Structure formats: structure tokens, C-alpha cells
Description:
The chain has 65 residues and is mostly beta strands.
Amino acid sequence: xxxxxxxxxxxxxxxxxxxxxxxxxxxxxxxxxxxxxxxxxxxxxxxxxxxxxxxxxxxxxxxxx
Length: 65
Ligand SMILES: [Zn+2]
């Protein structure tokens, strides 16, 4: 699992805001609620590249929590 301390250090590369760890269907992502972007985590390594991230719909459940 991703190190909690590492998680605290990570910010969204777009807005520098906080990220929230989300787990759906066995997949982990780091969600920026401000930008509605979900960054992938591959092999416990966050991929902090906007071009590799997926954009969430305004009503995506990941944004509701
Ligand atoms: Zn952001």
C-alpha cells in the first residue's frame, strides 16, 4: 500500500492542491477534486502526469466522498 507520509507530500501538479486517495474496483487513484482529475497509481507509484490522468465527470462518485 502507498505510504501515508508519501501521500501527504503529494499535491496536484496542476493546482498544487491536496489529493485524496480513492479505491474503486481494486484500482487506486489520487483524486483532485478541484480539477476533477484522477491520477493513476501503478505498482504503488503515483503517476503524477496530467496527460496520463483521467478526467472525472462532474457527477463522478469519486468526487462525492
Ligand atoms: Zn488539482
